[in-house]
Amino acid sequence: MKVIQFRWVQWIMGALLLVVVLVAAALCTPYPVELVRALREKPVPEVRIIEKRVEVPVEVRVEVPVPVSEGDTAAQIAPQPWEPQGLVPQVNLTLPPFPPVLPEKLSTGTFEQFTSLAKDLHLRSSVSFSSGTTASRDREKKQAYQIRIALDLLVPHAADARELLFANPDLPAVLQDYRKLLEGARVSHWFYALYRHKQNQARRAVAALSQPLNRHNFYDTDTILEITAPGSRRRVLWIQADMDVVSDGSDGDRLPTMPDSIRKSDYYQPMTSYRWRKRTAIPNPLLPSWEARLAKLLKDKSRNAAAIDDTRRVIWDIKRYSFLLAQYDPFIVVPLVLKEGRDDSFRPQPGDYAVVIVGKNVYPAIVGDFGPRYKTGEASLRLGKLVNPKADVYARPVSSLGASYLIFPHSKEPENGPIDYKRLNSRCRKLLDELGGLKQGSHFVEVDDLLAPKPSVPEQKLPTGETKQPADVQGKADNPVTEETDESRSPASENSKTPAEARPTVAPSSVPESRLPSTNPPDNP
Q: Distance from CA of residue 204 to its chain's centroid?
């Protein structure tokens, strides 16, 4: 009997101890109030989970939102922080109340966020949830699950005489009759056509979920003006834009060899829009690489007909024509949009003279090539380095819209051929004089021919009968190492090694360019 009573006492003490442990455990947890409310089946507010990446180690704190009722005191309303046991490498979370409560309905609404796709391109995305019908019916509706893309762009207007000074404030200090020239200026329809092509290109890119024009290329043109000089009636097409660099062109007559980086490149273009008939039998240095490309295309089983036709056309052209060299010739590139329309009075043609004004410097050039319809502001590598010695194919000479391209339509020479640099300098000066001339303080940059053959120095005979070599030849013969180093530093080093007969000076052909065969290849090239 005593044994049985003792066991009952043990059971009672054990139950009391268990109750004490449960009460102590409940008081030590962060969810005593939530536990009681959840057991009473009171609704709990919905809490969104927000994830944020942080560097580790990180201190994790959990704040529990507590519903406020009329009987709660300030101490009961204040969230109780949970003291972490240590620093743990995990994300910072705001946890839902405990125990988890299943949602009673689906939430709707719109959630937005900004993401940077590139340096100058920001994506504003949104996901919208709205109430529908059943899944079996909604899955048949196209509008039930769709992506809507919105690209917001500001379309600029053409700058006038006053607004041009924002791009280049030195223009009145360069042109003598700047005010008079701009008084009768008319915004060209090509400006609106250019930005229409930019809009179409952006629409196509967004529709195909591809990257559209970046900010730099979309806003690359400040204005296109058609100007007639008051006195001389000289017409000029004024394009205010930035300046990128192109490095195209080839000419076996003037530059028979080119580096492997160009000959083996898949992106280097051997042709320019300005061309002329070859004047020597020296083949184009890029001909072997293009013939090898054609042979590879013909062996390909896929047989890309368009690529084969384009390659054959290039081979046919470079066998018969010579082109400008971007590394040696100063020329500009105009957009193909300038070929559109019927008005031909201001339309530039390949070979027309032009000047480029950057700051107070004026550079002579010609129109050498056509570029994309939606892009302006391109110049050859030679011209780009004259403007900015640090320029190359990866660095723009002028990133702002501070380059003024003044094109003189219908000013080209009667016959196409290599640039006559003496004629280029004098002709551009005369065309500027027809606009009123340059002001004192501006600088016209004379351009020379880097590929012109150097004049030979005759040998001098000594009284003893020996032949005395010129000083420059004698010095190179005495120091061959110095000779190799000088040629490696010269931009025309490869051409300087070419024999004199490989680079003859040939008079222009008497056949007009208009009568030359078409540049299109025959049916069976």
A: 17
